[in-house]
DNA sequence: TTTTAATATGCAATCGATTGCTCAAAATAT
DNA sequence: ATATTTTGAGCAATCGATTGCATATTAAAA
């Protein structure tokens, strides 16, 4: 069990040259002759040399690590985005450190700190639900480290951002529900300080108005949008005898809970109540009936997020090219919201 | 936009002491007086000093990074295990680098290599489905770097491992199906070189035998166990007119596909066909009927995996304490497999 | 043949933190 | 008052790779 790893000095020793030459040979520096390069490569392979990225990072100041912060990797949307980021990053010889904030502000702050100490070359993040203050991200910018936000963004920061047009997605969905006969549509939403919920709600309201329907505040319910929240809220609405014939949720999880409760209470979906969620989580296609939802274009989002990141990374810090990319989401119509079923 | 980060030398300069002293002060070394320590701490805070882990890693040879390789983070089981690992790791001041192999052998090999180059202090992994050769993991061991495997393990390696008792889980499930009247149970399985599928199949066969039923090779179907595989296989079985009254799948995804096809073909579940999956993915409780499945105890598994890892890390490399932990999974009985529905 | 220009490599400093060894000053013991 | 400890810090090397600035050798030009 030999623990010692080969270094460029070991190679140098064997060939009776200096470490500098070895280093240059390995980096394909034109100042080194092909003959030497070949010899170096050969010995490197022979003694199983593996570069020490730590040493290189210290010297160059570049760790080739990117910190990625998501609320939770356990969601189709986030893991797809991560995959998109990872693909581009890996092809450019970067590794990503995935960290989860679990939607907890404190954890997010600590994570940012830890990533900075690990000397990541940049950070890509989607903000936690409970985050109301972004000083920790400001610190990142102050250090001149590239930062790109996606999906859960904030306007308090001058950074590159990638989002979908949440207003559009919600508008399309609600318009679709109305076209299918809904007149009293309940809306599940969450903390309005979070851009995505705010925008989706605006889309909901605008669609109602444009179709000559009234916005009834009693139909707009705030929660954490988990499955249990959907269940609880749906039951409360049913119990309160409020009149409704549709539900549009900002999350697939809470609409799932609502669907369960609706069925438990004998409501026919979509005959009596039409419903739609947001996020296109895979399970929405497994339910009975399958649930209409909005696809967030996670793959392109990951790709574009990574592209924006590397653009920033390669830019001369002076011309900080903070730009906002907005993708169009896609309404996925399934049985839960249509008449002809 | 100042990019320069403070170092211990900056602190030393301000206080007219040496960097060594600062370093010791920050590490609370007893050889430094309290007065000096206080001054150092004060200046450190004042100039917003943040330790450079890279430099420290180079010198100490410890990066305080743990590489975690999973087939995909986009699965409830894996993300739960990751969470368990992360919690313990963070509390000990370690960060984890999560990498996904996407169940691809080549990617796994590259990932291991990349993690080694990043000089992680150890690796925790669940092996990719397509991996048939574990030389890349052997290399990890040869370097004396702690390696712990969970769930998808291999016997070709002398390392600490954490698994559930797959045989037990499968046995319980199949026994349950039989007790509920099934006599011809189809089994969806995958590559038998992967321990979990092999064990689950053994459990399936043993349960049949112990109940006086025959093992019919025609009922054992190999695939990748994705949803589409489940759909395809189920349709093929139906088309082939093979007699069956139950399906036990080694994966929740393929049983989901099977359920869809069964319903599309007019089969009543569970009245005519009883089904059960494995994994307790959240969506199994959302389906109609909800699907009986096996919970893999992901939270304890993550915790125990991390514990085993740190045990190895702290052990004197001589007494390598490779140990295997086996957790009991839990059968979650739902409507898809019971009579009284 | 001498000068100039390429070409190939070496030297030594550097990145920031850590640590074994040395040493001066202060405290205690004889 | 001298000898011995104890305490607090400094010096310099180290981790492994990189790089600006020589330098030696060879080739081409004058």
UniProtKB/TrEMBL annotation, chains A, B:
It comes from the Bacteria. GO terms for molecular function: DNA-binding transcription factor activity; transcription cis-regulatory region binding. SMART domains: HTH_LACI. The keyword DNA-binding applies. Coiled coil: none annotated. Residues 6-60 form the HTH lacI-type domain. Keywords: DNA-binding, Transcription, Transcription regulation. This is Transcriptional regulator, LacI family. It comes from Algoriphagus aquimarinus.
């Amino acid at each position: 069990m030999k623990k010692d790893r080969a270094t460029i000095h070991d190679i140098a020793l064997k060939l009776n040259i200096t470490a500098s030459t070895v280093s240059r040979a390995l980096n394909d520096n034109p100042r080194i002759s092909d003959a030497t390069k070949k010899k170096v490569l050969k010995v490197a392979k022979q003694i199983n040399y593996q570069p020490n990225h730590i040493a290189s990072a210290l010297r160059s100041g570049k760790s080739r690590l990117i910190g990625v912060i998501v609320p939770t990797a356990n969601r189709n949307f986030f893991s797809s985005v991560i995959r998109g980021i990872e693909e581009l990053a890996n092809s450019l010889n970067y590794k990503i450190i995935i960290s989860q904030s679990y939607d907890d502000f404190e954890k997010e702050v600590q994570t940012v700190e830890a990533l900075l100490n690990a000397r990541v070359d940049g950070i890509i993040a989607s903000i936690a639900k409970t985050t109301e203050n972004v000083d920790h991200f400001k610190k990142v910018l102050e250090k001149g480290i590239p930062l790109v936000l996606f999906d859960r963004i904030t306007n308090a920061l001058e950074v590159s951002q990638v989002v979908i047009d949440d207003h559009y997605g919600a508008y399309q969905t609600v318009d679709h529900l109305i076209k299918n006969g809904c007149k009293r549509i309940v809306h599940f939403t969450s903390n309005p300080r979070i851009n995505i919920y705010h925008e989706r709600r605006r889309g909901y309201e605008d669609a109602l108005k444009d179709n000559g329907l009234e916005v009834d505040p009693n139909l707009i319910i705030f929660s954490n949008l988990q499955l249990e929240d959907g269940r609880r809220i749906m039951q409360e609405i049913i119990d309160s005898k409020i009149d409704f014939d549709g539900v549009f949720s900002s999350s697939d999880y809470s609409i799932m809970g609502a669907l369960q409760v609706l069925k438990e209470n004998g409501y026919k979906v979509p005959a009596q109540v039409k419903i739609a969620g947001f996020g296109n989580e895979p399970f929405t296609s497994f339910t009975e009936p399958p649930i209409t939802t909005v696809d967030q274009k996670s793959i392109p989002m990951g790709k574009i997020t990574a592209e924006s990141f590397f653009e920033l990374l390669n830019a001369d810090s002076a011309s900080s090219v903070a730009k906002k990319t907005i993708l169009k989401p896609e309404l996925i119509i399934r049985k839960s919201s249509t008449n002809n079923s």
